[in-house]
Amino acid sequence: MSSILILYGTGEGQTAKIADRIATTISERGHETSTLDIRERPNSFTLDGYDAVVVGASIHVGKHQGAVRDFVTNNQTALSGMPTAFFQVSLSSANEEKREEAAGYVESFLTETGWHPDRIGQFGGALRFSEYGFLKRLMMKQIAKDLLTERQTPSGDIEFTDWEAVDAFAADAAAFVESRLGVSPDTTEDSAE
After folding, report:
1. What values do phi and psi take at 187, rounded to 5?
2. Residues 12/136, Cβ–Cβ less than 8 Å
3. Which parts of the sequence belong to the Flavodoxin-like domain (predicted)?
4. pTM for the full predicted model
5. Separation between Cα atoms, residue 55 and residue 37, nearest integer Å
6. What are phi and psi of 78, to 5 degrees?
7. Domains plus CATH for the chain?
């Protein structure tokens, strides 16, 4: 099977959680997966040894992580030679009225980097009220006022991620890799049975 890297940048951990879920879904199809926080990659890191790459980034104050943007820009040649996917995590993606805004962030990222991933996913993020200080809690309440309901009190963490959409994106990305590389999914635990 294929070796697939899920490389991501995260601000408060939701993108990491989504990357792990993508890795699990792709692994269930028989592929070898690795997840890597962009901040933890060694200086000598390369894409050699991977058959495909999924890159994830979150939006904070209208921008993706600079380290993700720089990585994609600096590895343009390697990325263009293999199957790739990109996923974005933002509160705008969880809000029906702001999905166009979220799509604009993706377009800006792709324009800035010159990258053309084969698959793109956009997922709602999370609010980590339990981790915010007083001022950030007030600011995030204002930013997310359209998303918060009376049942969602801004004292704990609230996820807006559609996990079924994450699973569908991961399955689609894996199917594309399989098609492009001419491999079949191996969903059996022991093919000798």
Report:
1. -95, 5
2. no
3. 4-168
4. 0.85
5. 10
6. -65, -45
7. 3-125+161-181 (3.40.50.360), 127-159 (no CATH)
